[in-house]
Amino acid sequence: MKHIVIISASVRKGAKSPRVAQYFKNFIESRQLATTEILDLNEYRFPVFEERLKFQENPLPAAVSFAEKIEKADGVLIVTPEYNGGYPASLKNVIDLLVEQWKRKPIGISMVSAGPFAGTQVITSLLFSLWKIGALMVPAMFPVPTVEKTFDEQGTPADKEATDKRAQLFLSELLWYIDKMS
């Protein structure tokens, strides 16, 4: 069975995007589409980027473990909030920390916002950063507007039928790319 790592990118107090990460974990596993693991950047608390992992003399064990999890994953699903039109520094940090692990890795993106625009402004800068290091960007997105109203704390969507339908379409693209890269 394929394995998808879900990155929950927010390190902000009271973050709501982890709700969407939990939703995807539940959705994927309940349908046996793949095995999953959530890598919550709030739990890692990496220091500000100084050097790529491969050039560090004494890398943090957590950074080595994170790199191994990305390397072993068949695909990655990034759930990121939008902060002032961009993505969080915590996500930029791990993108820059790794290089080889992202290369040709199928990646799907879910953008999350508290407002009505669903984090759509974040996509341009995030896509460019991932494209620049050779990641394989899936041409489908999963925007989430008004996340507080859209998902509860356990990751249950307010409109389960419509959300599941959108998720199935989004994930079918990610899984197609994962299959092609296997």
UniProtKB/TrEMBL annotation:
Q: Where is the NADPH-dependent FMN reductase-like domain?
A: 4-145
In terms of PANTHER family, this protein maps to: CHROMATE REDUCTASE (PTHR30543), NAD(P)H-DEPENDENT FMN REDUCTASE LOT6 (PTHR30543:SF21)
Q: Which Pfam families match?
A: FMN_red
Question: Which InterPro entries does the annotation name?
Answer: Flavoprotein-like_sf, FMN_Rdtase-like_dom, NAD(P)H-dep_reductase
Q: What is this protein called?
A: NAD(P)H-dependent oxidoreductase
